[in-house]
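Narrative summary of target 7.
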Amino acid sequence: VQLVESGGGMVQPGGSLRLSCAASGFAFSNSDMSWVRQAPGKGPEWVSAINADGSSTYYSDSVKGRFTISRDNAKSTLYLQMNNLKPEDTAAYYCTAAGSWGQGTQVTVSS
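Modeled conformation, tokenized:
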């Protein structure tokens, strides 16, 4: 299982970012996928999940209405569109599947 996240960066409050996670080494199109984040000094926090065919999505209360999870099974890629970012969204973001995590991509929201 290989999961490679990208798309992180530094943005001002209210800004947007789109994270991507390129997956390989397992049956991506048959796998539920999730995003998890970890802020400095805190434990992991589940952010969002999507089922294998993309028909069902789930969000934590902290991101509901601002983040959108999606996937492209033809490209074996998971996405997280993040809008109206807040300083409390600052964290390393990881995609997860089949018990594995990627290396993460850092998102920093600061003025």
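Residues 4 and 103 are 7 Å apart (CA to CA).
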